[in-house]
């Protein structure tokens, strides 16, 4: 496991508890010096778990969080295996470089969302972190209380929160906002998630537009559907104190759900937290990576939100990596992927020069 070099990245691909488990399978683990400092894991904890501090790049398997840089790809040994978020849809040049370097690469975001692969679903584990933290950001920037308060000076009504896009991040956001005392409402173009929203004590916002797709994702809406969706959302959004957006279509620009007109119609002091900033944003006035105030409404679009909670985010991600790695391990810790396995076949984005 090498040290992550991306700006602001504090997560690591392996944690001591997972290393202990891999060691029991006969896997020798090498950790680059200082790799865990961002996640508050000193080298001593890695060595206590059985890892060696040294150069990780010549290893048979290299586990990362972020896609490798060109320089890092050059350090990988021919015939080795790389596991990590590789952005195969948005950064195909990375996959091409890995293939030329004769590296077998598995993209964590390409793992199929099937029941058997839930323990390896890094997109979901990190989305849980993002959904939780998004609500805390909304509460921080809000000018109003989340819960109802009854005081000697009178009663304060609870804040109203709308979550647009109720996949894993959205459901976690609804649950967290509910715990903080807000009145919660969820919306998604996939009608089958309405029961999940209601199970969290939230209301379901029905706009009459459905876009169920494959693999647990929503399909891209037609131009007519997008126009109708925006019109109805604009009317609904103005009645909420907090709006959290999580809608993404893999490999595409994020759909616009909160228009400038909707923001303008919101009550002053309201908050929009846009979790789709890395793919353009769901809010028309979003400035990715920044917190801005437009029409007296605060719009926050944090990038790589899971990295702001590196301890638990790393722990969850490391379990995902370990589960995937164990799927391809044979006796004595050797790596031998079974290409008949759907999980391995679909998550592998290059098998080297022969791919």
Attribute tags:
about 350 residues, alpha/beta, Rossmann fold, 2 domains, seven-stranded mixed β-sheet, 11 helices
Biggest pleated sheet: 7 strands, mixed
Low-confidence stretches: none
Q: Helical region count?
A: 11
CATH fold type of the largest domain? Rossmann fold
The percentage helix is 25-40%
Radius of gyration: 22 Å
CATH-defined architecture of the largest domain: 3-Layer(aba) Sandwich
The whole-number mean of residue pLDDT values reads: 93
Q: Structural class of the secondary structure composition? A: alpha/beta
CA-CA gap between termini: 25 Å
Strand order of the largest sheet: 10-9-8-11-12-14-13
Report the top-level CATH class of the largest domain: Alpha Beta
**CATH-defined superfamily of the largest domain:** NAD(P)-binding Rossmann-like Domain
Domain Alanine dehydrogenase/pyridine nucleotide transhydrogenase NAD(H)-binding: 139-301
InterPro entries: AlaDH/PNT_N (IPR007886), AlaDH/PNT_NAD(H)-bd (IPR007698), NAD(P)-bd_dom_sf (IPR036291)
Function: The transhydrogenation between NADH and NADP is coupled to respiration and ATP hydrolysis and functions as a proton pump across the membrane.
Keywords: NAD, NADP, Nucleotide-binding, Translocase
Structural overview:
The chain has two domains: about 15-110 and about 310-350, NAD(P)-binding Rossmann-like Domain (Rossmann fold); about 130-305, NAD(P)-binding Rossmann-like Domain (Rossmann fold), CATH 3.40.50.720. Helix content is about 30%, strand content about 15%. The protein has helices at about 15-25, 45-50, 70-75, 90-100, 120-140, 170-180, 195-200, 225-235, 260-265, 310-330, 340-345, and strands at about 30, 50-55, 60-65, 80-85, 105, 150, 155, 160-165, 185, 205, 240-245, 270-275, 290-295, 295-300, 350. α1 (about 15-25) packs parallel to α10 (about 310-330), α5 runs parallel beside α6 and α5 runs antiparallel to α10. It is elongated, with a radius of gyration of 22 Å. One of its GO terms (biological process) is NADPH regeneration. It catalyses: NAD(+) + NADPH + H(+)(in) = NADH + NADP(+) + H(+)(out). Keywords: NAD, NADP, Nucleotide-binding, Translocase. This is NAD(P) transhydrogenase subunit alpha part 1.
């Amino acid at each position: 496991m090498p040290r992550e070099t991306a700006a602001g990245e504090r997560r690591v691909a392996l944690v001591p508890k997972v290393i202990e488990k891999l060691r029991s399978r006969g896997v020798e683990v090498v950790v680059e010096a200082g790799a865990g400092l961002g996640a508050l894991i000193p080298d001593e904890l890695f060595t206590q778990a059985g890892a060696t501090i040294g150069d990780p790049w010549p290893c048979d398997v290299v586990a990362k969080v972020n896609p490798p840089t060109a320089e890092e790809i050059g350090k990988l040994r021919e015939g080795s295996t790389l596991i990590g978020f590789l952005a195969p849809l948005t950064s195909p040049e990375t996959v091409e470089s890995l293939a030329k370097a004769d590296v077998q690469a598995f993209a964590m975001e390409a793992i199929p969302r099937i029941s058997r692969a839930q323990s390896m679903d890094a997109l979901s584990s990190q989305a849980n972190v993002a959904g939780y933290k998004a609500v805390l950001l909304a509460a921080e920037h809000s000018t109003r209380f989340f819960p109802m308060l009854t005081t000697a000076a009178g009663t304060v009504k609870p804040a109203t929160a709308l979550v647009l896009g109720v996949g894993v991040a959205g459901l976690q956001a609804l649950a967290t906002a509910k715990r903080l005392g807000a009145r919660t409402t969820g919306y998604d173009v996939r009608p089958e998630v309405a029961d999940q929203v209601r199970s969290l004590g939230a209301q379901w916002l029905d706009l009459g537009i459905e876009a169920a797709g494959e693999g647990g994702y929503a399909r891209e809406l037609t131009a007519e559907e997008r126009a109708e969706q925006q019109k109805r959302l604009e009317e609904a959004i103005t009645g909420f104190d907090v709006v959290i957006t999580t809608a993404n279509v893999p490999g595409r620009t994020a759909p616009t759900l909160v228009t400038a007109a909707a923001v303008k119609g919101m009550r002053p002091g309201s908050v929009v937290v846009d979790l789709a900033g890395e793919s353009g944003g769901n809010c028309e006035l979003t400035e990715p990576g920044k917190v801005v105030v437009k029409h007296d409404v605060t719009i926050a679009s944090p990038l790589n939100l899971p990295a702001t909670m590196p301890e638990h985010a790393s722990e969850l991600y490391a379990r995902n990596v370990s589960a995937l790695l164990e799927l391809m391990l044979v006796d004595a810790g050797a790596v031998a992927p079974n290409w008949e396995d759907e999980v391995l076949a679909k998550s592998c984005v290059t098998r080297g020069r022969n791919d």
